[in-house]
Specification:
Layout (H helix, E strand, L loop, with lengths): L1 H34 L15 H17 L6 E2 L6 E2 L12 H4 L5 H27 L5 H12 L2 H8 L9 H4 L1
Antiparallel strand pairs: 1-2
Helix pairs in contact: 1-4, 4-5
Length: 172
């Protein structure tokens, strides 16, 4: 009987360790959901300002790649033809194009924003824990929020500037 109770305690400890390891992810998932909740007000609609412009670039890339089966070097739908691959506002490597196979382009762009915010929170958490050796979860959460949920990033996302999401950490 003594052995089975020790096995029960060890399995309980491993369950607690798993919960402790998942806690930051769950916390950052909740913060991401809260931060990006305005995007879910009308999921298939465009936002304000430049959302339509960036949807046009993503749609042109998507149409060239999947519709015509050719590399998206050229955008024939803009100004009688313009560069597409070389345009810095075109997200060349983005999950949007895979997501757009299953849903509307607007919804794919919004899910892309959510994914990047979650990855940003988790990346900041790992940076603070491993590089700067900060062990306090409240402190790492606070510092992660200073970078990922900063006003500059939120303002850029509100008007549709999602193309440079991977680089937002460098100028926030």
């Amino acid at each position: 009987m003594d052995r089975s109770s020790s096995d029960l305690r060890s399995s309980t400890r491993s369950g607690q360790e798993i919960l402790q390891a998942l806690l930051p992810f769950l916390l950052y998932a909740a913060l991401t959901a809260w931060m990006t909740s305005p995007l879910s007000d009308s999921p298939n609609a465009m936002g304000i300002s430049d959302w339509d412009q960036h949807s046009f670039y993503d749609g042109s890339f998507f149409r060239s790649l999947y519709g015509f089966g050719q590399p998206p070097f050229w955008n024939p739908w803009q100004c009688s033809g313009n560069v597409l691959w070389q345009n810095p506002q075109t997200a060349v490597f983005s999950p949007v194009y895979l997501l757009a196979l299953m849903m509307s382009m607007a919804l794919a762009m919004k899910i892309n924003v959510v994914l990047y915010c979650l990855v940003g929170f988790l990346g900041m958490h790992l940076l603070l824990r491993r590089v700067f050796s900060i062990e306090s979860l409240p402190l790492t959460t606070y510092l992660s929020c200073l970078v990922v949920a900063s006003g500059g990033i939120a303002m850029q996302l509100a008007v549709g500037h999602s193309t440079f999401l991977p680089f937002f950490g460098w100028h926030s």
